[in-house]
């Protein structure tokens, strides 16, 4: 293979890439870390000429084989500059243009220095800017939507090497595609994010019974700007975390048993024993850990309070290497979903069929949009601690996996506007795999029946019913993805067709159809 002279020395051979959880590893034929836009264009052009596919990765935090390839792999860690900082005269928000390889924690640091912050985050800040956009990363809030709703514009390079500017009015459809593209539309090189004045969050952490969660379902989810629940099914308990912007002074962070070295190693060792030696030990590990971390008394209305900067508050300790299978469904279906999951988990434990790890994360987001092209914020009566977003765009990404619900103004938001996310985490203690297949099959059946769809980045499984790979059930390894090709067509309807059309137009040679197996089994391209 002859590379053009300007690429010689740029593509590394013998590079081994693993995702963060170390579930998947690949050896790309060539690995690139370009430093200029021209280099990116040359790499794309050469890949087309050499009939290779090109996969762009960010920080590799997606837990699935979505980001694996044996062909060409590119990473934008040399694209981490802040290019422009434009504070609005009100001091309430600022538009910040950055190179897309910047990590979220680096962006957080930059914004902190200017007195600003991102409006909402997922559980971590390790992702790249492009990565957090491209898979539909979300946080936990009845007012905020996907993290990509904070973005005002994007610049991509498509499969023809063309640089294309995208925003709510310029190339609107392509913008909606690129706001969740799985890297299959083009390479995001630049993005403008709308940040708000830095804020602290006052949060309470309440221990509640599982039954209380179901009883309070109507009121809980709209009771705070930021809200998440960690469910411990064997203990039949939950932790209800609620946060609100505040001007109160900072307090010391809450203590964490598993945040100590001893607690952490002990917890991982207990899990290792449960996974590798005696699975029925799992519920005892859960109950022990819950008591050490949170205590055993219900504290509804009297939870432990903490005031922390937004980032420390919104991010959390995700503990160990893990599989995650996360689906979004209408929040109104939550009690039915959780009751079915609880029953299945209990029955499985009685029969020693499978065991689950904890917490099962229960979150919500408000992904309803006005669809307005105008992204000029309405700042009437707004202060630095007003709840709700100052959105960067009001468009729905074509591949947004959350249910299509009707938008309502902030003051009228009820559960009917909200998407429920349920995240079934299964740890890999000391990097050993846990059995996931039986649990994830039941989880997906329940989530699917309740109008759910999987988060694109995660370890969903799918079914041979939706993609015939030629293998029969017995030939799949535990937890191996079968895919959702046919189902995706049904789930996403016209948006699916539009995404595929735009993909084809912008990548006529299929240079971004990297990890073709993943793309085919999920219907992004035909077999
Ligand atoms: C511990 C942990 C906690 C997490 N918490 C959350 C959470 O709270 N909420 C949530 O929704 N998700 C969460 N995730 C998932 C994570 O946010 C997503 O997987 C995210 O996409 C990872 O970003 P990344 O930079 O690592 O991208 P990667 O995983 O490297 O890539 C993800 C996708 O982005 C594409 N991509 C990367 N760079 C570019 C580019 N420059 N141009 C075009 N496409 C590109 C890739 O091709 C790929 O399709 C979590 C993951 C982990 C491991
Ligand atoms: O993928 C995810 O991992 C963490 C849970 O550990 C989280 O919140 C996700 O989302």
UniProtKB/TrEMBL annotation:
Q: Name one Pfam family in it.
A: FAD_binding_4
Q: Which InterPro entries match?
A: ALO_C, FAD-bd_PCMH, FAD-bd_PCMH-like_sf, FAD-bd_PCMH_sub1, FAD-bd_PCMH_sub2, FAD_lactone_oxidase-like, Oxid_FAD_bind_N, Oxy_OxRdtase_FAD_BS
Composition bias type Polar residues, residue spans: 373-384
Q: Name one GO molecular function term.
A: D-arabinono-1,4-lactone oxidase activity
Query: Which GO CC terms are listed, alphabetically?
Result: mitochondrial membrane
Q: Where in the cell is it found?
A: Mitochondrion membrane
Region annotation (Disordered) maps to 367-393
Q: Respond yes or no to whether keyword Oxidoreductase is given for this record.
A: yes
Q: Which cofactor does it need?
A: FAD
Q: Name one GO biological process term.
A: cellular response to oxidative stress
Could you tell me the EC number(s) of this protein? 1.1.3.37
Q: Which Gene3D superfamilies match?
A: 3.30.465.10, Uridine Diphospho-n-acetylenolpyruvylglucosamine Reductase, domain 2 (3.30.43.10)
**Chief subcellular location:** mitochondrion
Which intervals hold domain FAD-binding PCMH-type? Answer: 24-198
Q: Part of which pathway?
A: Cofactor biosynthesis; D-erythroascorbate biosynthesis; dehydro-D-arabinono-1,4-lactone from D-arabinose: step 2/2
Superkingdom, natural source: Eukaryota
Q: Which UniProt keywords apply?
A: FAD, Flavoprotein, Mitochondrion, Oxidoreductase
Provide the catalytic activity annotation.
Answer: D-arabinono-1,4-lactone + O2 = dehydro-D-arabinono-1,4-lactone + H2O2 + H(+)
Similarity comment: family membership: Belongs to the oxygen-dependent FAD-linked oxidoreductase family.
Q: Report the protein name in the record.
A: D-arabinono-1,4-lactone oxidase
Native source species: Wickerhamomyces pijperi (Yeast)
């Amino acid at each position: 293979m002859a590379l053009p002279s300007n690429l010689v020395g740029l593509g590394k051979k013998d590079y081994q890439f693993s995702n963060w959880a170390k579930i998947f590893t690949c050896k790309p034929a060539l690995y690139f870390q370009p430093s200029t836009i021209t280099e990116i264009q040359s790499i794309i052009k050469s890949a087309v000429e050499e009939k290779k596919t090109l996969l762009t990765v960010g920080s590799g935090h997606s837990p699935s084989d979505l980001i694996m390839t044996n062909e060409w792999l590119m990473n934008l860690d040399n694209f981490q500059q802040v290019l422009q900082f434009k504070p609005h005269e009100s001091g309430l928000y600022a538009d910040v243009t950055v190179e897309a390889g910047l990590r979220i924690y680096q962006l957080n640091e930059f914004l902190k220095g200017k007195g600003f912050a991102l409006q909402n985050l997922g559980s971590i800040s390790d992702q790249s800017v492009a990565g957090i956009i491209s898979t539909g990363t979300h946080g936990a809030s009845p007012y905020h939507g996907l993290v990509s709703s904070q973005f005002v514009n994007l610049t991509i390079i498509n499969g023809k090497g063309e640089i294309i500017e995208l925003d709510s009015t310029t190339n609107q459809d392509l913008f909606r595609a690129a706001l969740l593209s799985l890297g299959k539309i083009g390479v995001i090189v630049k993005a403008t994010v709308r940040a708000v004045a830095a804020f602290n969050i006052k949060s309470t952490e309440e221990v509640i019974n599982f039954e209380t969660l179901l009883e309070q379902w109507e009121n809980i989810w709209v009771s705070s700007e930021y809200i998440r629940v960690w469910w411990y099914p064997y203990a039949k308990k939950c932790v209800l975390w609620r946060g609100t912007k505040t001007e109160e002074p900072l307090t010391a962070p809450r203590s964490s048993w598993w945040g100590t070295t001893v607690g952490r190693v002990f917890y991982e060792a207990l899990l290792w024993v449960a996974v590798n030696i005696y699975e029925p030990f799992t519920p005892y590990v859960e109950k022990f850990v819950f008591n050490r971390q949170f205590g055993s008394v219900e504290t509804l209305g009297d939870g432990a309070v903490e005031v922390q900067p937004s980032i420390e508050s919104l991010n959390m300790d995700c503990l160990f290497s893990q599989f995650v299978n996360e689906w979004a469904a209408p929040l109104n279906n939550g009690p039915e979903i959780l009751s079915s999951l609880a029953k299945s988990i209990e029955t499985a434990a009685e029969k020693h069929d499978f065991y689950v790890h904890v917490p099962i994360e229960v979150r919500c987001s408000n992904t309803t949009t006005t669809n307005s092209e105008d992204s000029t914020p309405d700042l009437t009566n707004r202060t630095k601690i007003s709840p709700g977003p100052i959105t960067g765009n009001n468009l729905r990404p074509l591949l947004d996996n959350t249910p299509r619900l009707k938008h309502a103004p902030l003051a009228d938001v009820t559960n009917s506007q909200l998407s429920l996310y349920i995240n079934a985490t299964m740890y890999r203690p000391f990097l050993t795999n846990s059995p996931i297949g039986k649990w994830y099959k039941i989880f997906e059946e329940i989530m699917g029946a309740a109008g759910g769809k999987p988060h694109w980045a995660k370890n969903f499984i799918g079914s041979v019913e939706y993609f015939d790979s030629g293998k029969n059930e017995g030939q799949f390894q535990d937890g191996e993805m079968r895919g959702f090709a046919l189902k995706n067509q049904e789930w996403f309807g016209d948006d699916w067709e539009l995404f595929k059309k735009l993909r084809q137009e912008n990548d006529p040679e299929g240079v971004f159809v990297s990890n073709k197996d993943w793309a085919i089994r999920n219907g992004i391209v035909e077999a």
